[in-house]
Amino acid sequence: MFPASAMEEIFEPNHFPALLYSAKQEYGQKRHNRPMHRHTSLCELLLCYQGFGTYYVGDTSYPLQKGDVVFGNVGELHEVTSDYDTEIGTYCFGIGNLHFKGLPLNYLIPEGSAHVRASGGQFRLFEMLCAQIDSLYADGAHDRLTAQLLLGALVIQATRLPEETIRRTPPGESQLPARIKAYLDAHYTEPLQLDELADKMGCSTPYLSHVFKGAFGYAPIQYVIRRRIGLAQTWLISSDLSATQIAAMVGYDDPSYFSVLFTKVVGLSPIRYRKQYLETLKGGRSQR
Fold first, then answer.
1. Nearest Cα to Cα of residue 118 among 76, 91, 158, 82
2. What is the pLDDT of residues 232-244, one digit of tens each?
3. What angle do CA 246, 247, 251 make, to 5 degrees?
4. Those residues with Cβ within 8 angstroms of residue 92's Cβ, 6 or more apart along the chain or in another chain
5. What is the pLDDT of residues 190-207, one digit of tens each?
6. How far is residue 171's CA from residue 217's CA, in Å, rounded to a whole number?
């Protein structure tokens, strides 16, 4: 049995974390991008077991390397990228029903704390736990239960990692890039005219593009495309909607043009991306 007193000190009643899916990204394979996206009903915990990359969350970026643990609270806009043309190696777990004492539902860490932390001397333990969880979750009921319990141990140990080891790059001091980004995040599936957006922001179109790219690394139109493709990926792997339906939902009336953009950003066509993802997924399809 669980030690009830310890459980009550850590979690709200009846809120032991539930493993919704497990996905291992194989290090060294051809990179397939998963642009900015968010989950509205779950949180994610990742372990980088090999490679170098960057984790973007909100307006902050964190360099990633072997041994880093990544925390993604529910509702946070995020993206993991590799520094090379091959995949960064990660274990990724989708978690629901997580309610730590003193935190909102499906929050792994408090707002304002570090989203990436080094596992340091505990890396081998974390890697072993992740490998066991990923291996067991696809099997029978007893093995899946074991995976759920191991996930609880992983979550508890990960959230106790110190923040002092983190390396973060905060956004620039100017408020204009943040205002532009907030507008794009609210309207990215709608038709966009940069001159109209520049008027709203009280600046010229070239200046708007310059300051936004300087702050976030992408021109506004590129950012919108990545947001749309990120949302399309979520629908592809969490629903049976057709690629044509999804194209319209994310802002493209021409499904052929959508397919070309998707393939350029991700490296696979929408249908191939759905097929490949579902072949490697362990657990439920919900990514929302």
1. 158
2. 999 999 899 999 9
3. 115
4. 22, 23, 24, 25, 44, 45, 46
5. 999 999 999 988 889 999
6. 11
